[in-house]
Write a structure and sequence with these properties.
heterodimer; A: Rossmann fold; four-stranded antiparallel beta sheet; 12 helices; globular; B: two-stranded antiparallel sheet; 2 strands; 6% strand
Chain lengths: 319, 145
């Protein structure tokens, strides 16, 4: 593959595409990111999950070199994306707040984008524009929310950038348009493998696109594992309250709810056939928690994660 | 797809295996490519590849260089034999477990099975002729279900 730019994106398997080492990003008293250390292996699709305000967009801005950390080090393909210009053209960042010049129409955007991305695919762009039915004669600034998202997806996928970063790329898209996005994404990745980081709240419908999962909560990484590990990280036991309490005794509880004499508890543990059999024998129902359940449980209450006081202490120590 | 807690690659493998067992992918024919499967199910291509490889490891699929994946000879019989072996665990055990939870005794379970089999037979007798030695089984008289 001749890329025509100066960044070598083909590394030995050992070198990750993205590496964050004890990264912090503070805005005054707020720690948007706090001591984040993680790696995204080459050629994988990494889902960035967590509630609003968890730090997802801040992290992605750092990857794209749009922002720099307050502490720690960010590396994309072995370089600091904030200072190393060639790395910038190896990254395609599709973000919510993308602005376009006032008089731009679709063809102007499609004419300019390839200049930033040497691996740009006109064929993929044409196919996507067609599939999303993007209007040619409308000023881009008059595009609807869904059309802007669709345009972002056209740019992100057609750039074939070695690292593509999608920040909630589906906003305003209807169900058919989202399906088009998912199908085109996996098809293009199968033919041209590359690294993708995508943030999403639509976990149920997007989890199968992912290989790796990072969950942020309050600016910290609370989970960093393969999709399969994340999917088997928790299970839910429901049934008579007394029985359930007995079955989950000693296990870390992620979520718990009660309905009359019935109780439903989600615990952070791998469901073994023995545990499942024991639960059924005791008259309880047991089922694997979905990834959505696991993510929702993080940051659902004050008992998980660190407190505001701890937050401020860390901030004080750093400044 | 991906409606239960099992790993997604496992579900892809099972689905392909079901297709082979059902004759949807006859032996010697090509199965859909990783790209096609990924785009159809909207599943990460690496995950699809992992699922396909499970079947390659079991000798059910084989790769022809530059052409794609093909169903191996004997794959269907192997899958059917495998399912027959798992029939008791997969269907009889849960049946008995539920029966016990409801307080049904074994005689009642037998009676319900017979009753259901009779119903099916009356509804569509043609579909319930004995299978013609598709795969080796215990050598005894078969009562068609």
């Amino acid at each position: 593959m001749s890329t025509g730019h100066a960044v070598s994106t083909v590394h030995a398997d050992s070198a990750p595409a993205v590496r964050l080492d004890r990264v912090g990003r503070a805005f005054r008293q707020t720690h948007a990111l706090d001591d984040v250390t993680l790696e995204v292996p080459h050629g994988t699709v990494c889902g960035l999950l967590g509630r609003n305000g968890a730090g997802k967009t801040t992290l992605m801005s750092l990857l794209a070199g749009h922002d720099r950390p307050t502490s720690g080090r960010v590396e994309v393909f072995g370089h600091d994306p904030f200072t190393h210009a060639p790395t910038t053209s190896a990254v395609s960042f599709v973000r919510d707040a993308q602005r376009y010049p006032d008089d731009f129409r679709l063809r102007h955007v499609l004419a300019v984008a390839p200049r930033f991305h040497p691996q740009w695919s006109h064929e993929r762009a044409a196919e996507l524009v067609d599939a999303f039915r993007l209007p040619a004669r409308t000023d881009v600034k008059k595009f609807s929310r869904g059309q802007l998202s669709a345009l972002g997806i056209v740019l992100g996928l057609s750039s074939r950038a070695p690292l593509t970063v999608f920040d909630e790329p589906y906003l305003g898209l209807d169900a058919s348009a989202r399906r088009i996005f998912y199908a085109q994404l996996v098809e293009d990745l199968a033919e041209h493998p590359r690294t993708v980081v995508v943030s999403t709240h639509l976990i149920d419908e997007m989890e199968a696109l992912l290989e790796h999962v990072v969950v942020l909560e309050g600016g910290r990484v609370v989970r960093d594992c393969s999709l399969d590990e994340a999917r088997s990280a928790a299970y839910t036991v429901s049934g008579p309250a007394v029985v359930v309490a007995d079955l989950v005794h000693g296990l870390p509880v992620l979520a718990s709810s009660r309905l009359g004499g019935l109780r439903s508890v989600t615990v952070e543990a791998t469901l073994t056939p023995e545990a499942a059999a024991a639960a059924r024998a005791a008259g309880a129902q047991v089922e694997p928690a979905s990834l959505q359940d696991v993510v929702a449980a993080h940051g659902a209450g004050p008992s998980t994660g660190h407190t505001t006081e701890q937050h401020l202490e860390t901030a004080g120590a750093r400044s | 797809m991906i409606d239960d807690g099992r790993p997604i690659f496992q579900q892809i493998a099972d689905q392909l295996a079901d297709g082979i067992a059902a004759g949807a992918y006859p032996e010697g024919t090509q199965v859909p490519s990783t790209t096609e499967l990924a785009a159809f199910h909207r599943i990460n291509p690496a995950t699809v590849g992992k699922g396909v490889n499970l079947l390659v490891e079991r000798g059910l699929l084989h790769k022809r260089r530059g052409l794609g994946m093909f169903v191996s000879d004997g794959a269907r019989d192997a899958l059917l034999a495998d399912r027959t072996a798992r029939f008791s665990d997969a269907f009889v055990a849960p049946l008995l477990e539920e029966a016990r939870a409801l307080g049904l005794d074994l005689g009642e379970v037998h009676r319900l099975v017979d009753e259901r089999a009779d119903q099916r037979m009356r509804r569509d007798p043609a579909q319930h002729e004995p299978p013609q030695q598709r795969h080796p089984g215990p050598d005894r008289e078969r009562t068609p279900l």
